[in-house]
Write a structure and sequence with these properties.
Layout: E1 2-6, H1 25-36, E2 43-50, E3 56-64, H2 71-83, E4 89-95, E5 101-103, E6 106-108, H3 112-124, E7 129-136, E8 139-142, E9 156-157, H4 164-171, H5 180-186, H6 192-215, H7 217-233, H8 248-258, H9 261-268, H10 276-289, H11 296-308, H12 312-325, H13 330-340, H14 345-362
Helix pairs in contact: 1-4, 2-3, 6-7, 6-8, 7-8, 7-9, 9-14, 10-11, 11-12, 11-13, 12-13
């Protein structure tokens, strides 16, 4: 499993990510959960360093720790992915609770062979490794440090003060999850009577929707878009914001409307404007509550919203949900491939603008 977080600045965004600079390897070690959006376990993390002097955090990639026989292959894949950010250097981190390795030469910290494979692969791509860290049990070690503080039984405590990266992640809406599973739980399907009631409502709304679409496809699409905008209004934060409580009927009307590709593609544009936060709330509710395969469309839209915020982990989770629900859903498959290729958020933003502009030309009445 591979996850990507993107802290690269998109100047065209109405709320661009903060520019975050590094001060020490210990700071980045402590801030890894804020870079990823969740606390990694048994993971290897590659952080792109960009900007003047290579002291700005760029693309961050996480992968599960591999079996030793797959270390070289993973190192090659991570090198290709991080190379899309054109880093001036990288910082490597292994997050693991594995104990020290004992051999003829004495004790050593774990996973040094993986760090070696990564260093070799990155060197071949002319990407220098600024430091390689082990994060374990609230302490950190540098694989390159020869001093007693980095001996297997030592390590230095992770800093406890609030870092610039933590402040930036909170300001941009990244809530650190306990683990990747907690991210998936945020959009887990409702169960029990709630799911049964939602399915009954969806069936009734779907029957009316399909009859209307057979009668006048363009008018039905227009009404669906109007309905999405109405429901979106209930998701906008106000002076006394309360938890969103959308009726099953509202959810059903939205997801059936999104079954029309033109409506769905127009909905992509919501992630670019002032209603981006409200749209993400709406797509989350629709993903949680709508029955399969209708949840594939809002899950894909949720992935786009998260991706444009730089939250690659949530984008991956949402795309997994979309493809689990509907394996042949072409937009989710396309976006999954683009995310795996580390397409920068600004390029996705451009593609969405072009798509919406084409819709404006073809359906001016909207």
């Amino acid at each position: 499993m591979v996850d990507r977080m993107d802290s690269r600045v998109d100047p065209s965004s109405p709320s661009p990510p903060y520019r975050v600079r590094l001060t020490a390897p210990s700071e980045i070690a402590a801030a890894i959960p804020h870079l990823l959006g969740f606390r990694p376990h048994e993971s290897v993390v590659v952080v792109s360093l960009t900007g003047p002097g290579g002291r700005r955090v760029g693309l961050t990639i996480r992968a599960d720790l591999p079996p030793p026989e797959h270390a070289a292959a993973l190192a090659a894949a991570l090198t290709r992915s991080i190379g899309t950010d054109r880093p001036s250097g990288v910082l490597l981190a292994v997050v693991s609770e594995e104990g020290d390795v004992h051999g003829p030469g004495g004790a050593d910290v774990p996973h040094r062979a993986l760090i070696h494979e990564l260093t070799v692969a990155l060197a071949a791509a002319e990407v220098p490794v600024r430091d390689a860290l082990l994060v374990r049990a609230g302490r950190w070690w540098s694989y390159d440090c020869p001093h007693p503080c980095c001996e297997p039984g030592a390590g230095a405590p992770l800093p406890t003060e609030v870092t610039e990266l933590e402040v930036a992640s909170v300001a941009t809406g990244v809530v650190v999850a306990r683990d990747r599973g907690e991210l998936a739980a945020r959009i887990a399907r409702v169960t029990g009577e709630s799911a049964a009631a939602m399915e009954r409502t969806s069936d009734r709304v779907g029957d009316r929707y399909c009859r209307a679409r057979l009668g006048d496809e363009v008018e039905t699409a227009h009404r669906s878009w109007t309905e999405i905008q109405r429901v979106l209004g209930h998701c906008r934060p106000g002076p006394a914001a309360a938890p969103v409580a959308l009726a099953d009927r509202d959810i059903a009307r939205v997801v059936w409307g999104l079954s029309d590709v033109r409506v769905r593609d127009r909905a992509l544009g919501l992630a670019l404007g002032p209603d981006a936060a409200a749209a993400e709330i709406l797509w989350t509710e629709c993903t949680r509550r709508s029955p399969a395969p209708l949840d594939a469309a809002p899950a894909t839209l949720l992935a786009v919203s998260a991706w444009l915020r730089g939250d690659g982990a949530m984008a991956n989770v949402a795309l997994d949900r979309a493809l689990d629900s509907r394996p042949t859903y072409s937009l989710a498959r396309l976006l999954s491939e683009a995310l795996a290729g580390c397409l920068p958020p600004e390029q996705l933003r451009i593609a969405i603008r072009e798509s919406v502009a084409e819709l404006d030309e073809s359906t001016p009445a909207w």
